[in-house]
Design brief:
Blueprint (H helix, E strand, L loop, with lengths): L3 H9 L3 H10 L2 H8 L4 H10 L2 H9 L3 H9 L7 H7 L8 H22 L15 E3 L2 E3 L16
Antiparallel strand pairs: 1-2
Helix pairs in contact: 5-8, 6-8
């Protein structure tokens, strides 16, 4: 069984194939159990090694702060120090993953804002990517991160 120290060792030794194999086999609960013991860069690397649909499944179970962290770290360039040693091992996640991650965090933050405002229900979904204002709440769509192309799905 791999520990946080084992993952950190694989990262230090640039054993990305081993880390990718672990990420592919480990369940969401196992990954979540290791998550808290990893440094921020290690978390980003591990997330980027997950197959996109598994990455989204894992993302759904995270706390808001961790979701926000991963959304901000979505561009492949966020792990630039690792990429220098990885020799082309990492590939960007597709743009649909970013869009779904963004929708999840916007929905979660809207629901939290509505709850804080003392309302019993969430605002209805936005239509056409516009802005809906509800009291002191203004929510807009998430723009893609710099360099993310919808047409290519790459960064």
């Amino acid at each position: 069984m791999v520990s946080e120290a084992g993952i950190q060792g694989w990262l230090r030794e640039a054993r990305y194939a081993d880390l990718a194999a672990f990420a592919a086999e480990a369940g969401a609960e196992r990954l979540a159990g290791l998550w808290a013991g990893l440094k921020p860069m290690e978390r980003l690397v591990l997330f980027k090694l997950l197959e996109p649909s598994r990455a989204l499944e894992f993302y759904r179970g995270l706390a808001f702060e961790e979701k926000y962290f991963l959304l901000c770290g979505f561009p492949l360039a966020a792990i630039a120090p690792v990429l220098e040693r990885a020799g082309g091992f990492f590939k960007p996640h597709p743009s649909w993953l970013y869009e779904r991650m963004c929708r999840l965090i916007v929905t979660e933050s809207r629901m939290a804002a509505v709850a804080v405002a003392g309302r019993a229900q969430a605002l209805p979904p936005l239509r056409g990517g516009g802005i809906r204002r509800g009291g002191d709440i203004a929510v807009n769509h998430c723009p893609p991160p710099a360099g993310l192309s919808k047409s290519t799905g790459g960064q």
